[in-house]
Write a structure and sequence with these properties.
This protein has helices spanning 2-25, 80-127, 137-154, 160-178, 180-194, 198-247. The chain has 248 residues and is mainly alpha-helical. Among the domains are: 135-196, no CATH class; 198-239. It is rod-shaped. The protein starts with a helix and ends with a helix. One of its GO terms (biological process) is cristae formation. It comes from Pseudomassariella vexata. Residues 43-81 are annotated as: Disordered.
C-alpha cells in the first residue's frame, strides 16, 4: 500500500513540473496596475469612515430614569405635568377675573357714595342765604322752632288734624317772615324734586293757585272792608262835628 502511494507521487511530480514550464513559456499580458475593482476601495484614496450611529447610554441603576424607545420624529403627547400646568393657569385666570370684578364693584360703590355725599353737601350749601342778603340762619331758625312749638301748645287738646297742621303752618309762616331767602331756596329745591313726580307737581300747582286765589280774594275783601270802615268812620265823624257845631 505504501508502495502504491510513492508511485503515484512520483508520477504526479513530473506532470506538475511540465505544467509550470509551459505556463512560463506561453506569452501573456502583464499589467502595471491591477484592474480596478469597484467593490473594493483603493488604499491610496481618501477614505472616509462612516460616522458611528449615536447610541443612547445605558441607564444607570441609581439614576432612576427609564429609557425610552421613541423615535426623534415621533410627537410626544402632553404629560400629566403639562395638563396640571394648564389647569393651574385656568384657575389663576378665574381668580384674577373674580378679583378684578370685586375691585370694580367696590370702586363703583365708593364712587356712588362720594357722589351722594358731594350732592348732599352741595344741596345743603345751596340752601344757605348769600352774604349780601344780610340774613342770618341761627336766630331765624330759633324763631321758626318757637313758632312751631307755640302752635303745638295751642292745639294740644284739639283733634289730630289741627295738631299736625297748625304747628307746621305757623313754622312755615314764621320762616317766610324771618328767613325769606332761605325759605325761597328750600321752595325751589322742593319744586325740583316734585318735578320728578308729575302727579305731585300738578297737585302742588293746583294747591298754590288755590292759595293765591284765596289770598287775592282775602286781600280784595280786606280792601273793601277797610274802605267800608273808612266811610263809616268818616260819616260818624261828620255827624259828631255837626252835633258839635249845633251845640255851639
Amino acid at each position: 500500500m505504501a508502495a502504491r502511494l510513492l508511485l503515484r507521487r512520483r508520477a504526479v511530480t513530473p506532470f506538475m513540473a511540465a505544467t509550470l514550464v509551459g505556463a512560463a513559456l506561453i506569452p501573456s499580458n502583464a499589467y502595471a496596475e491591477a484592474p480596478e475593482d469597484l467593490s473594493k476601495k483603493p488604499i491610496y484614496d481618501d477614505y472616509e469612515a462612516p460616522l458611528p450611529k449615536p447610541t443612547t447610554p445605558a441607564p444607570s441603576p441609581f439614576s432612576g430614569t427609564i429609557p425610552t424607545t421613541e423615535s426623534p420624529n415621533q410627537k410626544r403627547g402632553p404629560t400629566p405635568t403639562d395638563r396640571l400646568a394648564v389647569q393651574i393657569g385656568k384657575a389663576r385666570m378665574f381668580l384674577y377675573q373674580q378679583a378684578t370684578a370685586a375691585e370694580d364693584a367696590v370702586n363703583s360703590t365708593m364712587d356712588k357714595a362720594f357722589d351722594l355725599e358731594k350732592s348732599f353737601t352741595q344741596t345743603v350749601a345751596s340752601l344757605a342765604p348769600p352774604r349780601e342778603s344780610g340774613e342770618k340762619l341761627m336766630p331765624g331758625l330759633v324763631y321758626v322752632l318757637v313758632a312751631g312749638m307755640a302752635g303745638s301748645i295751642v292745639t294740644r287738646n284739639r283733634n289730630i288734624f289741627l295738631r299736625a297742621s297748625v304747628p307746621l303752618a305757623l313754622g312755615i309762616g314764621a320762616g317766610w317772615l324771618v328767613i325769606p331767602v332761605t325759605m325761597n331756596n328750600i321752595s325751589s329745591l322742593a319744586w325740583r324734586y316734585e318735578q320728578k313726580f308729575p302727579a305731585v307737581a300738578e297737585a302742588h300747582i293746583k294747591t298754590r293757585e288755590s292759595f293765591q286765589r284765596g289770598w287775592q280774594i282775602a286781600k280784595a275783601r280786606s280792601g273793601m272792608s277797610k274802605q267800608y270802615v273808612d266811610e263809616k268812620v268818616t260819616e260818624a265823624r261828620d255827624v259828631v262835628e255837626n252835633w258839635v257845631k249845633k251845640g255851639k
